Amino acid sequence: MDIKQLAQEVYKRTNVETTARDVEKVLAGLASSSHFWEVVCAAQKPFSVVAEIVGVLKSEGLVSIDEEGDIHLTQEGMEFLKSSRITPRKDFTCQACEGRGIGLEKLKELIQKFDELTTDRPKAIIDYDQGYITTHSVISRVALMAERGDLQGKKLLVLGDDDLLSLAASLSGMPAEVVVLEIDDRLVGYINEKASKLGLPVKAIKYDFREKLPEEYVGYFDTFNTDPPETIEALEVCMTRGLTALSGEGCAGYFGLTRTEASLKKWNQFQQMLVNKFKVAITDIIDNFNHYVNWDYLLGSIRDDYTFVQVKPRLNWYRSSMYRIETLSGFERLENKPMPCELYVDEEALIYRPDRKR
Ligand SMILES: [Fe+2]
After folding, report:
1. How far is ligand 1, taken at its centre, from the CA of residue 327, in Å?
2. Residue 54: φ, ψ to 5°
3. Could you identify which of 29, 90, 109, 221 might form a hypothetical disulfide with 39, taking C-beta atoms 3.0 to 4.6 angstroms apart as the criterion?
4. pTM of the predicted model, to two decimals?
5. What number of other Cβ atoms are within 10 A of residue 168's Cβ?
6. Identical fold between 3-83 and 105-327
7. Do the beta carbons of residue 117 and residue 171 sit within 8 Å?
8. Which tens digits make up the pLDDT trace of 65-115?
9. Helix 232-244 and helix 264-272: axis angle, to 10°?
10. Which residues contact 111 (CB under 8 A, 6 or more apart)?
11. Ligand 1 centroid from CA 257, angstroms
12. Looking at the domain covering 3-83, what would its CATH class be?
């Protein structure tokens, strides 16, 4: 089987388009790490694609799996790499900022305050696909908004907030007001309790993004922030809600989008939606900006047919790119109405349960 055939076999198994270059990237990842989650992180391809590439490589005898679930290139695999001119993946990421381009030296106090305040934060639960980002990621997000002029003295909407960005942002003293719309009662209660204890200008309200935006918040905010589920349907609903909340031109939206649960084909489809339907400009895409803290339910929620997948992650492997969009002159709001969103999980999702619709 050559690389091209291998890619076709993976496409057949996953229903996610896979190219020879994708296979090369996974092979380059395997040449530098034997840990599945590190390879997923490095390859920047949907989880299912990486898993199936390794699966096919195994059945072709190019890799072997040890008792720990680590993946090793066989002699044949190493020869295959050599003849295909594939070398170990190179990594030149700036260690100081982890590649975000945000210096945190001036924000040490904020980091400490946030960590102290949130030690008793609610655990990530599967019901709402939760998983929260590291302190450095959340503080960098605050810094990014501040740097772009979207935070100081501004009204900020946080649509879904298991990251507790609302608390981080308000602890900085910069935003005039922060509103959290959140489906999880535990988080609504937690955020409100912390805010009132510290006198922070934050209010959390229970909200399901399929419902229309509360009327008082239509056109109310300067900035929104969200981390949408990554099906095209859910992305569309989230962007509609966020943009409906903005007051006019020159406002900004921030959100994360992964490569692990969204193929580049989906990225393209989504980017077209942003530009053509929502008529915004995409000003920033910062690779691997948001690093997620490993969550307890991962291994129980994903496929269990490959032993190399059922391995506890040894790094914060799940990451998303930081998007910033900006509204332009002539900004027009879409109709504020309920949007039933059936699809939370597609073939690119980490959790694959065809029976599970929420
Ligand atoms: Fe840096």
Report:
1. 28
2. -65, -40
3. 29
4. 0.94
5. 27
6. no
7. yes
8. 999 999 999 999 999 999 999 999 999 999 999 999 999 999 999 999 999
9. 40
10. 104, 135, 136, 139
11. 21
12. mainly alpha
Tokens 């129980």 found at: 300
Whole-angstrom CA distances from 53 to 37, 236, 266, 300 are 14, 30, 20, 22
89 Cα to the center of ligand 1, angstroms: 20
Q: Which residue has the tokens 């934060």?
A: 121
Residue type for position 242: G
Is the pLDDT score of 358 beyond 50?
A: no
CATH code reported for the domain at 105-327: 3.40.50.150
pLDDT at 357 over 90: no
How far apart are the CA of 247 and the centre of ligand 1, in A?
Answer: 33
Which H/E stretch holds residue 181?
strand 177-182
In terms of Cβ atoms closer than 10 Å to its own Cβ (0-12, 13-18, 19+), residue 311 is middle
- Stretch (H or E) spanning 214: none
Q: Find out whether 225 and 165 touch, Cβ atoms under 8 Å.
A: yes
pLDDT-based confidence at residue 353 (cuts at 50, 70, 90)? low
DSSP string, 57-114: HHHTTSEEE-TT--EEE-HHHHHHHHHTT--PPP----TTTTTS----GGGHHHHHHH
Q: Tally Cβ neighbours within 10 Å of residue 85.
A: 7
Partners of 182 in beta bridges = 206
Residue with tokens 């966020």: 242
Side-chain-side CA neighbours of 172 within 13 Å: the count stands at 28
Q: Is residue 347 within 8 Å of 16, Cβ to Cβ?
A: yes
Where do the structural domains in the chain lie, given as residue ranges?
3-83, 105-327
Quick one: how far is CA 175 from the chain centroid? 24
Statement: residue 230 has pLDDT above 70:
yes
**Residue 292 gets which letter from DSSP?**
B
User: What is the Å distance from ligand 1's center to 93 Cα?
Assistant: 8
Q: How far is the CA of 324 from the centre of ligand 1 (A)?
A: 19
Distance CA 132, CA 118 (A): 12
Q: What share of the chain is helix, strand, coil (3-state, %, to 5)?
A: 40, 15, 45
Res 352: pLDDT: 63
250 CA → ligand 1 middle, Å: 28
Q: pLDDT for 236-268, tens place per residue? A: 999 999 999 999 999 999 999 999 999 999 999
